[in-house]
Design goal:
It comes from Pseudobdellovibrio exovorus JSS. The structure is a single chain. The protein has 16 helices and 12 strands. It has about 400 residues and is α/β, with parallel strands linked by helices. The chain has a domain of about 260 residues: SGNH hydrolase (Rossmann fold, 3-Layer(aba) Sandwich), CATH 3.40.50.1110. The strands form 4 sheets. It has a 5-stranded parallel beta sheet, sandwiched between helices. Helix 6 packs across helix 16. The model has no long low-confidence stretch (mean pLDDT about 80).
């Protein structure tokens, strides 16, 4: 019996020692770069893609006419910087969920300079100025708000906000050109998730001065919104924890009522403790463990259930609610698509192969956000969705 206990102790010690030595090796490797880390493999979220509709030829013709001379990104630089380990953003942090509160505290802030550089190659990736209003919303150039017009509200993350481009080249600005009969509001938050949009309807700080004419709300979706909303191990890694863990953790109580459990780093102390330890592992980081996470069916159903709370709020205010996947079918799983359609969420999934070459030109090299061309293309796709499901408040069917 003693011999068995001794052997067991020896095995445990040997196992723990191997773990410690392995972790030490990969910590040194992270500094010295002896072995290149495994890149996170981003598998298709959905192998049974939902049926896509082809974009009308007029979209391609319009882009060809408007952006014929638009230069393709420097592919060599884009390849070198594709994972941007040495990119540094030089700006006031603007991805916090409390944008409105911050702008109440510092009302004189009306413009943010956001400059992204790559330290290794000493290259400016983007250099943009963001005009902001007193509610922490991104401004649209030359827009005069009318209390008599209906509203077009865009919610989402950096693809809605327009990270990396000046005010004149964001997707909401291009939509304003197409729909001058609306007041257009950009409620995008860089690194935002669905929980940030829920914060807006719970606290209402960024909605208080919007008139009661109703209109249109468009939620721009990428799959990473699930990560930001539910926070798996990825949120606890160094590159995310400073902003992701500050986000609200929303759930439903026994009566099915939406509740805010607090910040992700405090709502579940046991999960936070366990994940905080795992997130520091150099070995798990090296093998790309959970760096590209596909959430389970129940999480995806819960995400749609939370989205329906957003939809219900805006529809009660007289808005038509729309959902648009920025990356098309590749952003959606079969579960998400079925749940959204089953609950009557207006969405379109377009086959963008006809404009594929233009979409490649529409990305900021070394970053991944959309440039002027990319935002124009996104606006064109959302415009087609609105033509397919005309809002009750629209009086002009623009073909621009």
């Amino acid at each position: 019996m003693k011999r068995m206990a001794a052997n067991l102790t020896l095995s445990v010690v040997a196992f723990v020692s191997c773990l410690v030595l392995t972790e030490m090796f990969f910590r040194f490797n992270a500094r010295q770069g002896w072995i290149s880390p495994k890149e996170a493999e981003i598998a298709p979220l959905n192998t049974n893609f939902p049926k896509e509709e082809r974009l009308p030829k007029t979209v391609l013709q319009d882009v060809q006419r408007r952006y014929a001379d638009f230069q393709r990104p420097n592919e060599d630089i884009a390849d070198k910087l594709s994972h941007f380990p040495n990119n540094k953003q030089t700006s006031t942090p603007i991805w916090a969920a409390d944008l409105a509160r911050r702008f109440e505290q510092f009302p004189d802030i009306r413009e943010i300079h956001n400059r992204m550089i790559n330290l290794t190659h000493n290259r400016v990736i983007y250099n943009a100025y963001y005009g902001m209003d007193h509610r922490g919303r991104r401004r649209l150039p030359h827009q005069e708000i009318s209390k008599y017009k209906p509203n077009m509200i865009f919610v989402g993350c950096s693809f809605t906000f327009g990270t990396g481009v000046n005010d004149a080249y964001t997707m909401p600005t291009f939509m304003k050109h197409r729909y001058p009969e609306y007041n257009v509001y950009n409620l995008g938050i860089p690194a935002g998730g669905l929980n940030d949009s829920l914060d807006d309807i719970v606290h209402k700080k960024r909605l208080e001065d919007i008139n009661d004419q109703g209109g249109v709300v468009i939620y721009s979706f990428i799959y990473d919104h699930l990560e930001r909303t539910f926070c798996s191990l990825n949120c606890y890694r160094e590159e995310r924890r400073s902003w992701a863990l500050r986000k609200s953790d929303y759930d439903f109580d026994k009566e099915g009522k939406l509740v805010n459990l607090g910040r992700h780093d405090t709502s579940n102390p046991y999960k936070a403790f366990f994940y905080s330890i795992l997130a520091k592992s150099a070995f798990l980081d090296f093998i790309g463990f959970e760096k590209s996470k596909k959430f389970g069916v129940e999480d995806e159903k819960k995400f749609v259930r939370l989205l329906l709370e957003l939809k219900k709020f805006y529809e009660n205010q007289g808005y038509d609610f729309y959902f648009y996947p920025v990356g098309g079918a590749r952003e959606l799983t079969e579960t998400l698509t079925q749940e959204l359609r089953q609950h009557g969420v207006k969405l379109k999934i377009y086959d963008t192969s006809s404009i594929h070459e233009w979409k490649e030109r529409g990305v900021i090299a070394g970053d991944g956000h959309l440039n002027e061309l990319g935002n124009y293309l996104l606006a064109a796709q959302i415009h087609q969705m609105l033509l397919a499901f005309p809002p009750k408040t629209s009086t002009v069917q623009s073909s621009k």
